[in-house]
Amino acid sequence: MSDLVTYSHRGPAAVLALNRPDRRNALSRDLIAALADAFRRAAADPAARCVILTGTGPAFCAGMDLDELRGTLGDESDRVWDDAHRLSALYEQIYALPKPTVAAVNGAAVAGGAGLVSVCDLAVAVPDAKFGYPEVRRGLVAAMVMPHLLRHVGERAARWLLLTGELIDGVTALQVGLVNAVAGPDHLHPTADAWARSLTEGGPKALATTKELLRRCSRQAVGVDELAKASAEPRLTDECRHGLAAFFDKRPAPWVPR
């Protein structure tokens, strides 16, 4: 397995840790592929009754690797579409995993990183973790995470997060329903471990059936492919190119009033 994701066992849980701390665990193509492999391994691992997802370093996941994205801007090839479909498929893979999943959010979980939190069954975060969807500020659309975010926080909070791009801390994320609990840094993983032990008191088949019924009851109206397309299309626009250029140049985007 790629060293971009570490795989270990802690009690009854498989612990998957995003391992690009120098890039704040940003979702590159290779990291997305490594995560998909790690979740497939966990699904087949008889020693793993549940899965804990966390990050190494100070961040959980800073979202899409914008440096990598910048290299595809204006590219009309299949790469833009393939990138969106791979991330959309990863979200669906985690959401539909037959084993319970717990996000242990050790730091910033932004954009695609917040999406990873939203597709896990349970989430615990440190108080100063940061959550948000700043895509619109770059000329992008957070299409793939919308159904999952709406299920957790409702439309009013989702509109605030998606339209303003503002970041919230772990305490506010708890208040709006994005996470289940807040724990200090020394208690983050013990909390996740305690949940893992509690989850193993459920029968494996009963847990898998419950998860599948929950998925069917909350069936999203927009399909995975359509969401991927809605995420990919803005990447081909001048608005996105100008927005990302402004981000990298550390200046306001051209549509921001002077």
Can you describe what's shown?
The protein is 47% helix and 14% strand. The protein is of the alpha/beta class. The chain has one domain: 2-enoyl-CoA Hydratase, Chain A, domain 1 (Alpha-Beta Complex). The strands form 2 sheets. The protein has a 6-stranded mixed beta sheet, with helices on both faces. α1 runs parallel beside α3 and α3 crosses α9. The termini are far apart.
| CATH evolutionary superfamily | 2-enoyl-CoA Hydratase, Chain A, domain 1
Number of strands: 9
Low-confidence stretches: none
Rg (C-alpha, Å): 18 Å
Q: What count of helical segments does DSSP give?
A: 10
**CATH first level: which class?**
Alpha Beta
Terminal Cα separation, in Å?
49 Å
Strands side by side in the biggest sheet: 1-2-3-4-6-9
CATH architecture: Alpha-Beta Complex
Estimate the strand proportion.
5-15%
Largest sheet: 6 strands, mixed
* Average pLDDT figure: 91
Relative helix content: 40-55%
Count of domain modules: 1
Quickly give the structural class: alpha/beta
Under CATH, the topology is which?
2-enoyl-CoA Hydratase, Chain A, domain 1
Q: What does the overall shape look like? A: globular
Secondary-structure element series: EEHEHHEEHEEHEHEHHHH
What is the strand and helix layout of this fold?
Blueprint: E1 5-10, E2 13-18, H1 29-44, E3 50-55, H2 66-70, H3 78-95, E4 101-105, E5 109-110, H4 112-119, E6 122-125, E7 130-132, H5 146-164, E8 167-169, H6 170-176, E9 181-182, H7 188-199, H8 204-217, H9 224-232, H10 238-249
Helix pairs in contact: 1-3, 3-9
